[in-house]
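Example 4.3 (complexes with small molecules)
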Amino acid sequence: MLQTTITCAKCGSSALRKNGSSGGKAKYQCTACRHQAVLLPTAPVRAARYEQVSKLLVERNSQRSIVRATGVARMTVAKLAKKSAAHLPGAPGADERTS
Ligand SMILES: [Zn+2]
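Answer. The structure with zinc ion bound is encoded below.
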């Protein structure tokens, strides 16, 4: 679980309040400078989670245990396993199917 403190992108203040939503994501407004934005972009969060998945894949955990630990869908784990196996110098991915 990622725990992040949200700060204003303009002035760096952490005095924020929720101010509606955009595309299903909460918008925040800075009470100091009145700047408003969706201050939790999903791409870095997802990248951090995929990084964790690839670390678990290196440790030879099963795909289903990675799904239980991280909450990432199994097909996504399989895709990442295939992708990471392609970077290895040895055998090109036939041994990823652990389940
Ligand atoms: Zn601000």
